Every structure is written in C-alpha cells, then in structure tokens.
Amino acid sequence: MKELVEVMAKSLVNDPSAVVVEEETTGTTTVLRLHVASEDMGKVIGKQGRIAKAIRTVMKAVATRENVKVIVEII
C-alpha cells in the first residue's frame, strides 16, 4: 500500500524526489504519512481537497480487500 501512495503522489508533483511515505501499523490499522515539498502541497491536495479525497478513496478500496483500515495523512 505504501508503494501505491508513493506512485500516485510522484505522478502529481513537480519534485518527485521529495516524496516520502512513512508507514505505521498497529493491529489492523495502517497509517500512511505522505510528505511532499511545500510547493507541491497544493497539487497533492487539489481544489477543495478533491485529489486528497481520491487518494484516500483508492487506499480504502485496497484496504477493504486486505481486511485492514488505512488512514492517509498528508503532511
């Protein structure tokens, strides 16, 4: 799942080398923290948060197949 978030984020930003995804798992919950360059933050969030919501929706679909809960935080 970490790799999927990383691929999606790198395709959106101008500086793909600044994209870092941290994964923290506790029980059946996985927290993915997405770090991007400050100038690329708007591209990852999108207008009214639409891109961020789309990323979270895709990750929830993947998590449902694996019977886990995923939280995506954009930092």
From TrEMBL:
The record's section on InterPro entries has: KH_dom-like_a/b, KH_sf_prok-type, KhpA
Gene3D superfamilies the UniProt entry points to: 3.30.300.20
Keywords for the protein's UniProt record, in alphabetical order: Cell shape, Cell wall biogenesis/degradation, Chaperone, Cytoplasm, RNA-binding
Give the CDD domains listed for this entry: KH-II_YlqC-like
Biological process terms in GO annotation: cell wall organization; peptidoglycan biosynthetic process; regulation of cell shape
Entry keyword RNA-binding: yes
> What are the GO MF terms of this UniProt record?
RNA binding
Keyword Glycoprotein on entry: no
**CC terms in the record's Gene Ontology section:** cytoplasm
Cellular localization per UniProt: Cytoplasm
**Biological function:** A probable RNA chaperone. Forms a complex with KhpB which binds to cellular RNA and controls its expression. Plays a role in peptidoglycan (PG) homeostasis and cell length regulation.
Q: Which NCBIfam families match?
A: PRK00468.1
The UniProt entry's sequence similarity note says:
Belongs to the KhpA RNA-binding protein family.
HAMAP family in alphabetical order: KhpA
Query: How does it associate, per the subunit comment?
Result: Forms a complex with KhpB.
Q: What is this protein called?
A: RNA-binding protein KhpA
Its taxonomic placement starts with: Bacteria, Bacillati, Bacillota, Negativicutes, Acidaminococcales
